[in-house]
Protein 1
Amino acid sequence: MDDATLIAQVQAGKEHANRYLIERYKNLVWHMVLRMVSQPEDAEDLCQEIFLRIFRDIGKFRGESKLSTWIGAIAYHMSISYLRKKGKEILVPVEDYFPVAGTRPVVESAEAALDKSSMKKLIHRIIDSLPVHYRTVITLFYLEELSYREIGEITGMPDGTIKSYLNRGRQAIREQLVQLVPDLLPVLAETQ
Amino acid sequence: MNPDSNPWNELDALILETLKEKPERELPLTFTDTLLRKVERQLTWRELVREFAVKTGIVTGTLLVLILCLILPVRETTNPFLLLLADHWKIVSGVIFLILFTFFSDQVLLKFYTKQRLLDTRS
């Protein structure tokens, strides 16, 4: 179903269209919100609020962008508002960012961490500790496979900033991983 | 050890693989159903309030036009009915408020809860 048909059917109050809209975009909204907000219970409630806003404002969608980016933008802005209400810091450049003690993931040894699934869990925890804009851009680019333009339409960031956040974000993940598991690189080199 | 390999490449590959992975935690299976019920509730409420506003607007507008037609031609009215209304405007306002509230309860609240009960029984 194309965007225009879907919107028309949603506005006509067709329940199957409402259901289709939710099923089609719930993962995009969930992945974004979960990454931005971090707390799963809060993320779930926020996802509901986001969809209620989408259904309320669907008549305002003018078709200037894709429906997915319009929905993504609503999810992004509502998540930022939520974080502001909770007093969470939003704008922290990654080079100024230093994980607060207690929020940094703890690893016992390189061998324990080298189990692939443990490494992945550690990487996820590192991502969760990055500033929110980095997490958002990383999620939209790698997980949702959106283009720079689409990410720009959702977040309002220029292409240059998005690329910068992606590069710096990945660099920060690498650096933190090596800091947390100091023997990691030698062990990786030995196993090759 | 492969002399051509670089542990940073392997690390980058793992990071990339992790970035593309879906989160472990997913939305509950009942998410869509719960949300649809809320949407239905909101849409029903908005529709009923809109209908009520239109009906009230029509009735109030008509009454205002009538009153203006009665008052304007004769500024110093001697119509006993209008004089009675003007003298007891507080009681008149209270009665109008009560009528509006009853109308609102019937057209909006009662219809809303009846529809919700029907939906809950169906689900």
Note: The mean pLDDT of chain B is 82.
Protein 2
Amino acid sequence: MATGGCNKNPRAATPLTDFSAPFVFGRFQVPVDNPLTEEAVELGRRLFYDPHLSANGKVSCSTCHIQRLAFTDGRTTSVGVSGRPLAFNSMTLANLMWGPQRFFWNGRVATLEEQTLVPLQHPDEMAQNLERLVTELRKDAKYRKLFEKAYGETSRAAIIRALASFERTLVSANSRYDQFLRGELTLDAQEELGRKLFMAHPDVKVSLRGANCIDCHSQFLTGGSSARYDGFSNNGLDDEAHLQPGLQAVTGNPAHRGMFKVPSLRNIALTAPYMHDGRFNSLEEVLDHYDRGIKNSSTLSPLIVEADNRGGAASGRISLHLTATEKVSIIAFLHTLTDHDFVTAERFSDPFARK
Amino acid sequence: MVPGWGSAVSSAAAAPAAAARESNARRNVEESQALVLLRGLPTLNTVHSIAIVELNPEAKNFGAILQEVELPKLVHPLHHLYYSPNGRLYSTGLDPKCSLAEVSLARNASGTAVIKGVKCLDTGGQQVGEDIIWHSVKGKEYMFVTFMGGTGLDQPDCGSVGVFDPQSNALIKIIQARKSVVAKGAPYILYPHGLSAYQDRLVISSTVHPDLKTGVGNAITILDLNTFEPIQNIVVEDAKPVNFSSSPVEVLFVRPGMVAGVTPAVLVNTMFGFETWKIPYNEADKSFGAPVKAYDGVKASTGVPLEFYGNQTELFVSHALPGIVKRYKLSGLPELVPSGPDIKTGAGAHHMIFFSTASGRKVIAVQNNLLNLGNAADNDPTDVDFIAKVNDHSITVHDLQTGERLAKVSFKDRYKKGVENVEALFGSGFVHHH
């Protein structure tokens, strides 16, 4: 990617040693040219929370990615320097090292480094001129020192790499469900029923009831699917006439119309409103959508079409036919994905905040 | 710092020259890495350990130990590795101080898998842990572990099945039914090793006393999981090619979850009988039929059949002598319908894993060691002649389609250790082990 090179070697870049991630999340790779270092992460955290990165000095990354909301903003769609509502709902920032090969709801960039550039420069988001930003940062003694230690220079590439490094450290791994996976606790009966429904595709032939969640949300604990465009789906939000471009805007492929990124479900109870356009205000509304609100279209996921706990998929009516108890149980399970440590951890918090 | 650092948008958009990086990131370089349990060999002054090893035959560092954690406090090594359904890693063990353990894994800042430690679990005195399965009974999940030494190696008829809470690892129950304790003719549990379950029936084998001289079994035991009690023994024995009892070792309850529509049956490998037996199961009345010999090693010139492994289409059975893996059509089960030529590995062919190499070649890696008990040539005090003939101390990697040997690492030559067990680092790479 064209982030430019960091020409100087940092003198004191320290490999990140105070870092441990769950084995079960799977393999991740950090770019060879942007290893995780203490200095890069410290710099990235400061930049992430600094409103001076925006054209009007009022909008930082954290404006739309608030820690207590699992790095979302609670809005239907975000609002940046222009004051105009953006096209999409703010996506959570957690466990971004695992899975995603395409970022944003419509998958418009391929790397975390590239991702940091988009909001920085977008006229409605932060509207920043990167060359001017570099000039200003070089005038600041504190930043000059931080950049020197992390990357050996203050540059556009260093800004991008530092932000990406901080975002890579946003690891959420201590929800009740994480603790369950580690054997530290047992889910209660309602959560356990929800877990089983979440994991099951309904099959009336063997009397297996399921909510069909895992079919699309297979990477629900991390950042998404690791396959190039596999982690995108049309989940029946709109009918044929109202399908939005979605992934098609990136690929040009009509078969991708109406498909959006299947998001992580980590901390989902904190990240309302839901969907790419924030149309649902609660998890109850989301469950109602999947249960009886699916709209058919040419690109609707076949995994949704055929999922019916009454086996009536062949009739053409798309419905999961979940019971009220089942829906409540699934929501109870989704609440086990909330990681309170993550949303309060000081290492992820605003370094400018008064103690 | 002053606000308002300009407002114009840079025209220098990021050019995504990340295709190569993206491709590299997607490739799972970990797929060819394996966890191995290594046994220190007393005459070679080495220590038992658990290690991560590179097994990609195309890699320059094939056979390299990437990380190793030594277990100096154990006289006997860890024995078999298993991932739980929730991705937790367990190991059975041969040392009385550590008959069952949970192995802690994590990832460091570069994404590399790291063995963090080994925590020995309370087994209530049960010894010589062998196999583990996780199985649900009446909606409740349990971890079942066979302990070939039961609650004491001093018992000539030792053996038990430990029932554990899979969340807390707490021991729930010790299932024991020693021959000398139960009524004459009543179902017994003796030197259990293999175990496999379907619905409310658990099948365990009766293998050999851990001291390899006090006694040898010749039957399997059926347990009713409604009561956790043994309800039946079934003898599986015919030829005695080495004048021992048949010593059933691994069992596999062939079931619909493994092969859609299959008629359930139990397959049993007899270590000293050299045979594979099929025991029909009538799901309607929960009865087991008369055992039928499905494979005769004496006729086929193979011996010491050990493990059952499977992938999506085939069942693989390892035979320590002469060191081969036979393969059968999964769709043909419970009959053993050959699906391809034998894979010639090494003496002691035992555990195996499956993976794809970086170039996409599908391979099978086989651990060739029966028990790692040393070798007379080393004047090893732990040597047992019969056993020493089935210890190649190696892992061989073969093309899965053709069986061609692609690479071999001898752990004895390279690390002065025996290799006790192999398991794929991230998940098992197989679907039907027990």
Note: Strands of chain A lie at 21-22, 232-233, 260-261.
